[in-house]
Design a protein that fits this description.
alpha+beta; Nucleoside Triphosphate Pyrophosphohydrolase; 3-stranded antiparallel β-sheet; 7 helices
Amino acid sequence: MRRGPLGMAATFHPNNLAARRTTRICYPRRMDIADAIRAYQPTNEQEAADRRIMLEQLASDPACFERTSPRHFTASAWTVDPSGTQTIMAYHKIYDSWAWIGGHADGERDLAAVALRELREETGVVNARLVELPAGGILSLEALTVDGHEKRGAYVSSHIHLNVTYLFVAAPDDELRVKPDENSGVRWFSLEGALAASTEPWMRNRIYRKLVARTVELRGEL
């Protein structure tokens, strides 16, 4: 287990997700995001490096929750069914690929709420449940590069998303709908099917495979 920042005596190995599960009820769900990122224990080298960037940005850039900053915070919802065998993906127009759900903080520090907002807006799912995990519910961290692109008729310069991912559970029989200005399709995939559907090699190999592995580890706690 881990609980250094909150005073609970325990040990935690960064690759031991079972240990993360045993302490989750002791962590506040709405921990401030800066404290949550500090408390989060990276599970691989990518997360360790990206966590450092996030903490540096939090300490130096008061605008890091706004799109005006070239490195700004976003939140993603990795949403699975109660059995942990399926996940929701949307076909994003900008990335021209099936991908997870997420969006910009736009001034909001409660990134779990941002992820839930984006899930509702982009898929129509209204009854999703946030899975309680240590460190304010964070499932994973990632700094993601975004190439310059056109959006709603205006050019958006290249930038970095400081992304915090949360795990949600939803029922497969919830009605799904597209958000026409963002995506052209929303559907459930098997975990392996979601990997196969992604046409973004870096995201598939570095991020989605990581999330699939964690989903499998957490199935008994969904």
